[in-house]
Amino acid sequence: MTDLRNYISLIKKSGDLKTIKSPVSIKYEIAGITAKVDGSFAVLFENIKESDFNLIANLVGTRKRFSQAVGSNETKIHEKVISAIKKAKKPKVISSGKFMENKSRQLSIMPIVTHFEKESGPFITSSIVYVQNSETGKQNSSFHRMMPIDDIHFSIRMVEGRHLHRCFIDAKEHGEDLKIAITIGVHPAVSIASAYQAEWGKDEINIANSLLEGKLTLSKLPFTGLKVPSGTEIVIEGKVLQDKTHQEWMVEMLQTYDQKREQPIFELEHLYFRNNPIFHDVLSGFSEHRLLMGMPMESKLNGELKKAYPQTKQVSITNGGCNWLHVVVQIKKKNKLDPKKIIKKIFELHRSLKQVTVVDEDIDPNNAEAVEYAMATRFQADKDLIILTKVRGSSLDPSSDQKKLQTAKMGIDATKPFSKRLEGFEVAKIPKIDKIKLENYFK
What we know:
By secondary structure, this protein is α+β, with helices and mostly antiparallel strands.
């Protein structure tokens, strides 16, 4: 039960999948339908005008489907992910993957979607890249979007300093192209693990195997020698050219256009795919993209912050902050300095954050109205506001200094002050209100 088709069967049974059989186009139409749905259910497109492949979108567009992907429930997602990170173990390797059923050397057979009017072209947005770390000899897997240039070349987006980019620079310094493999259409547990930023030298695929209860299997590829999930729908292998670039720009998770960048070029060697392949598309800036990026980080923050400060109850990366830039931390306050210490710690753990709000345990951190209520009644700007200037921020934020990657950050202590009468902050309740059913009164 470790491939995409198993997961599709699971969400179909739970009523979270809808199928579209009428003809649709990869140019804007699929993106438009996905945006309209925005996470509420997954969509399987079975009749694509420009391709014989099927396509699925919104796979993990809600916390419910995210929890289904990691074999948990919504209240225990973070415990499952944290446990998988701690207990990561290597998958078994089998001789041949299901993706070996078909072979091609034409990228154009895939339904690569054109999403937004001002992007530089269509993009593969679910592509997971596998590379061997030359220092440790271990593999690494991570998301990198790719734009087709011609039938055998893609531009490939790399973030400077991250794992793949470091491997690319190392190969380039040795005068070599970098061999990589790419998967499209994997069980979402593999996607979730690959979105997690593991430590240098660690292999995210081992986390995926742990999420899948040790049942994931890998298969070795002939050209690169890399190992990828054996049930993958589409597998590409080839090399990133050391001396060629191509200009591109795309929409990021904030639903804004990134700046134009010269990116390395990937050259295709082999394209493999299963019978009746299913292509996975992730709509940039919408719910699936944000949850894939934000939830693994939210798990990390919950684990690390609770370990450092046991008074932490819950950490929530907010929807309004694009599941990346804003966090609300719920605590059981023991000392008046707790909120400020926690604010400092969480900025250290997640450098992209711009805003941290700390609330008491009677405030739901996932309820934006409740958080604003805490700010309105428990926060004084001259005492409870922390401002950091000219610090490292997110390259995605268009308001920041993009060249120096610097931004300003804000920490808000919206907890009840010990210096005031605590009874004055108690939210009034009406006894037995939950037992009142209005339909019994208005007939």
